[in-house]
Amino acid sequence: MARAATTTDAFNAVAEPRRRQILDLLAQGERPVNDLVGLLGLAQPQVSKHLRVLREVDLVRVRDEGRQRMYRLNAEPLKPLHDWLSRYEASWNKRFDLMDEVLEELKETEKDDDNDH
Amino acid sequence: MARAATTTDAFNAVAEPRRRQILDLLAQGERPVNDLVGLLGLAQPQVSKHLRVLREVDLVRVRDEGRQRMYRLNAEPLKPLHDWLSRYEASWNKRFDLMDEVLEELKETEKDDDNDH
DNA sequence: TTGACGTATTCCCTTATGGGTATATGATTG
DNA sequence: CAATCATATACCCATAAGGGAATACGTCAA
């Protein structure tokens, strides 16, 4: 098997920095494709392709407005990611880190004088 | 160019479900590779390969213990992801009321120095 | 209608994935 | 030393990525 498709889920879709940029821009409000093209400094086809991926995982929604297509953010699919990450939040808190170090030291000490079995 | 390497950053590393599982397991404590092999139901080489990726983005640390290698979690590289996602938290909490005002302001500011139309 | 504009799709190309399988490396025991 | 356990690496393969460039499609203006 190859790597999972970028359209598999929000995790994969958002792994691409350009797509994160797009979401960041759309967080400020609806925008047509050409706006994004200008702001991202990318060629139009690549932007459209990124938008397609985001659409497929429902991170953006489209609305036709004349010959333009207005894209807007739909952040809901990001919630699962946030939830998953929140479970690790304690790990990077200082109190936890302190404890971690203590445990590490204990382990090291143990290794030194516990060479019997 | 092809897709960014899985070892580029935590975003890419964590896009793979198996690697998320591994982190979840290691969150409960240090474990040798064979433990993970059993728990994941994966072949040993694939587990080692996933662990290599996680090591390269510093999401896990290793410690030699006899002929075993004890892997442990280092969640810190996940913090940036969590931070990025937190900016969107309001979106799925339906708490647009407060945020809307900020967004409107941003839009106005942008209109001034942006050369659209 | 024609033509310009805004956007999407297609094709080419290089690169790397992740699983499977075989084998190499390292440490421990006898 | 050899044999064995624990883990890492090397290969092969099918798949798809993301950028570049060309082109197709849909809408609006004249």
Properties at a glance:
117 residues, disordered C terminus, three-stranded antiparallel beta sheet, 6 helices, homodimer, 3 strands, DNA-binding, mainly alpha
Can you tell me about this structure?
With 117 residues, chain A is mainly alpha-helical. Chain A is 54% helix and 12% strand. Chain A has helices at residues 10-13, 17-26, 33-40, 44-56, 79-86, 94-113, and strands at residues 31-32, 60-65, 68-73. Chain A has a 3-stranded antiparallel sheet. The structure holds a DNA duplex (30 and 30 nucleotides).
Beta-strand residue percentage of chain A: 5-15%
Radius of gyration of chain A: 22 Å
Number of helices of chain A: 6
Spatial shape of chain A: globular
Question: Which structural category do the helix and sheet elements of chain A fall into?
Answer: mainly alpha
Number of strands of chain A: 3
Q: Give the biggest beta sheet of chain A.
A: 3 strands, antiparallel
Précis, in short:
The structure is a homodimer of 117-residue chains. Chain A is built from six helices and three strands, in the order ααβααββαα. Chain A has helices spanning 10-13, 17-26, 33-40, 44-56, 79-86, 94-113; strands spanning 31-32, 60-65, 68-73.
How would the blueprint of this fold be written?
The structure is a homodimer of 117-residue chains.
Chain A lengths: L9 H4 L3 H10 L4 E2 H8 L3 H13 L3 E6 L2 E6 L5 H8 L7 H20 L4
Chain A binds a DNA duplex (30 and 30 nucleotides) through α4.
